[in-house]
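Reviewer 2 asked us to include a model.

Predict the structure of this chain.
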Amino acid sequence: MEIKEIKEIKETKETKETKEIQAKRKVREGFVSSDKMDKTIVVKVSRSVRHRLYKRTIRQTTTLKAHDEKNQCKVGDKVRIVETRPLSATKRWRLLEIVERAKGVQAAA
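Predicted model (structure tokens):
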């Protein structure tokens, strides 16, 4: 009977570990480059990478589409987005928060 109990404990530990791994989601920070779509924003995320051969630091930019439920973001805002399930053909990110509002950019009437 003790052997069965040990197996059950091992199984529960493994499931807890897998649950923790599944809960971890990628978080990125970038600037809104477009807000023309309904409930969708386009975010440009920059990262610095070292060139393999020349050892020079290069800035690479990735364009991601994120879900903005309340249409509250404007072009130039600094935002934090989190990875989520596929919401459309190209949208796999969701707006987490607006870190900083754009300065000097006025909304069109």
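The chain has a mean pLDDT of 85. Strands lie at 27-34, 40-50, 57-67, 78-83, 91-100. We have added this to the supplementary material.
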